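Deliverable D2.4 — example input (structure tokens):
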């Protein structure tokens, strides 16, 4: 199908983009990589009168480290994440997960900010951001505010981002020593959304797990944080029996939608299996294996 008529805007500064959003209100939509918005426009599920392209705003790009925190511009592409040696050295879960997103063509244009701001439960970065304790810098007419990833995603296509705000930057703490990480993702074919996926980041003190984040992709109306599973493992030596118990607790919070990827029972079961795999791999990495 062909999108409806719209007026195209190409701001070169963040302030200009926010001004356009404020001017056009609900009739304006921002364009990042376009892989979420353009298909919706073609199907007439979204019919903005004004399209505000963020690709010309240099301040929304780049990856840098300051005071133990990695700053990622929202318009940084998936391939730029994968190519970043800083991320591989300091927060390798992000580029590792980016390699599992869609295909090379999509990764060349798709952006981390677009993936996050869209609020699609099938997107990978929401769970990754929650697992890494990331925060988001939101820029609007009244200035900037910083919100944690955990709590940002409120429902399907529904986030804390206000209509006149733009996601400017993602801030991620550098992984401390003895940190293990993994993103286990089941999908039918290259380029597909996850049938189910689990992200895990944990820290060890000797054999004791001092902290663990477990988050799930595409098994609920938004990315899910398995808090009871985390509590079960924190402060303990993680055994195979505890891993199985944690997987059961992760499965208990799942509420997936039935579709061509599987029914509710299958997706829930796969969420548990992905959780097991991610915890095991994270443990191996934290132990230096």
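Example output (designed residues):
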């Amino acid at each position: 199908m062909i999108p409806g008529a719209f007026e195209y805007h190409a701001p070169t500064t963040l302030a200009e983009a926010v001004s356009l959003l404020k001017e056009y209100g609900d009739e304006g939509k921002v364009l990042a990589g376009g892989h979420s918005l353009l298909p919706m426009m073609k199907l007439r599920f979204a019919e903005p009168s004004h399209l505000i392209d963020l690709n010309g705003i240099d301040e929304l790009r780049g990856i840098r480290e300051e005071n133990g925190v990695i700053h990622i511009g929202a318009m940084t592409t998936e391939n730029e994440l994968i190519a970043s040696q800083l991320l591989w050295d300091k927060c390798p879960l992000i580029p590792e997960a980016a390699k599992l997103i869609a295909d090379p063509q999509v990764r060349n244009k798709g952006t981390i900010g677009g993936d996050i701001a869209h609020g699609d439960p099938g997107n990978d970065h929401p769970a990754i951001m929650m697992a890494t304790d990331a925060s988001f810098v939101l820029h609007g007419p009244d200035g900037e505010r910083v919100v944690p990833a955990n709590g940002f995603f409120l429902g399907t296509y529904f986030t804390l981002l206000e209509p006149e705000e733009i996601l400017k930057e993602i801030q991620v703490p550098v992984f401390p020593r003895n940190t293990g990480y993994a993103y286990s993702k089941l999908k039918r074919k290259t380029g597909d959304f996850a049938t189910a996926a689990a992200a895990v980041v944990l820290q060890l003190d000797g054999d004791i797990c001092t902290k663990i984040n477990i988050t799930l992709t595409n098994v609920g109306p938004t990315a899910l944080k398995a808090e009871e599973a985390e509590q079960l493992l924190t402060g303990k030596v993680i055994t195979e029996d505890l891993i199985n118990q944690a997987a059961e607790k992760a499965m208990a919070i799942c509420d997936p939608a039935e579709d061509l990827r599987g029914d509710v029972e299958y997706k829930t079961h796969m969420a548990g299996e992905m959780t097991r795999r991610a915890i095991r791999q994270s443990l191996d990495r934290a132990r230096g294996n």
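The chain has a mean pLDDT of 94.
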